[in-house]
Specification:
Length: 353
């Protein structure tokens, strides 16, 4: 009996410590009838990005988040106050779980996995997937998710999300209808870049946050979140132009040439390197190589915005993005005359001289 009891206890411990296998019964669609769909916030993204925003507002970069919401835009003050008050009301175990989770886990990895779930995914489906064997996270990360997500959802986020998501439903429908009348963003990007993106459709999800965005690929869909203040078509593609430009750069950015350029920049351009190294909002999200790419991506996205919308004000976002945009303007970038790969490499060579 003692041997049997010991065996059963060992088996129980093993079952608890091992992740379960999850069969997604309600998956995200892999194609849509039209080429674009703008949608209200969904729990599978908003739960994670809101937790990350609470972490940033209270722990990682509080001054930066405070300044984002200091501008007089309807809803900003109330949302920022909720971010602060919610964190202060969390018990110490949940605060610790929040810190433990995002100190070692990029929220994009979590959201990229929940992309597989349908838009009406429940909190149970989200937690089950993120703690399953399909999730490539360590046991401590999965424990933080299992502790934090249900407690945060039940006690704070469910009511807040339900109250706020309603305002975006008619706006999303309006943006979809307007976008379908305008030039296809994918075809426009292909024409301007000289690079193909394939037969893709676009899904844009509103976010509750005012700054930052995420992008994902799923089946035939190119997906991006957009900020809560996007209230006109003139703002609709500002973020997707950046997010989808990453798909263009993935066609060549992993080459040995760029790898060497990025390495040389880290050793020879200290101002650039220290700008990344000294800012938690950058070095906790981007590797050095990814940060170099961000500067090129945002520079080209600025050119896309200007050519699509014509009247656009440009500000520096990273470090060299505005300079790269100006470089593209100076050479009158034309995809029939230059390759995006060539001009990107030439620009970084110029800042090494």
């Amino acid at each position: 009996m003692r041997i049997l009891a010991g065996f059963l206890l060992a088996a129980l411990i093993l079952m608890v410590s091992c992740s379960t296998v999850v069969l997604i019964e309600n998956p995200m669609e892999e194609a849509i009838p039209e080429y674009i769909s703008v949608r209200a916030p969904v729990l599978k993204y908003s739960l994670i990005e809101t937790l990350y925003e609470i972490y940033r507002a209270n722990m990682l970069v509080p001054d930066q988040i405070a300044s984002v919401y200091a501008v007089p835009v309807d809803g900003y003050a109330g949302h920022y106050a909720w971010l602060i008050e919610t964190y202060e009301d969390l018990n110490s175990d949940s605060q610790d779980a929040l810190a433990d989770l995002f100190e070692i886990t990029n929220p994009w990895k979590l959201m990229n996995l929940t992309t597989k779930l349908a838009d009406d995914a429940t909190i149970e489906e989200i937690v089950d997937l993120l703690t399953s064997s399909e999730a490539d996270f360590d046991d401590d990360t999965k424990s933080s998710i299992a502790l934090l997500f249900p407690e945060f959802y039940d006690n704070y986020f469910a009511a807040y999300f339900e109250k706020n998501v309603r305002q975006f439903i008619p706006l999303a429908e309006e943006m979809t209808a307007e976008a379908l009348k305008r030039e296809n963003i994918i075809r426009f990007m292909e024409e301007q870049s000289g690079l193909g993106l394939g037969e893709k459709s676009v899904v844009l999800y509103y976010s509750l946050q005012a700054a930052g965005a995420w992008s994902f690929n799923h089946g035939d869909l190119m997906i991006s979140t957009i900020q809560r203040n996007v209230d006109s078509f003139d703002l609709l593609y500002h973020t997707p132009f950046h997010e989808f430009t990453h798909d263009l750069y993935r066609k060549f950015i992993d080459s040995k040439e760029f790898d060497q350029l990025f390495f040389d920049l880290s050793k020879e351009n200290w101002g650039f390197a220290l700008h990344w190294y000294n800012q938690p909002s950058l070095n906790t999200v981007y590797s050095w190589w990814a940060f170099c790419e961000e500067n090129l991506v945002e520079g080209f996205a600025k050119l896309l915005r200007e050519r699509y919308y014509t009247n656009v004000d440009h500000k520096r976002v990273y470090y060299y993005d505005l300079d790269f945009y100006n470089y593209l303007k100076e050479i009158a970038f034309d995809s029939s005359q230059h390759s995006l790969e060539e001009v990107s490499a030439d620009f970084f060579r110029s800042v090494l001289r």
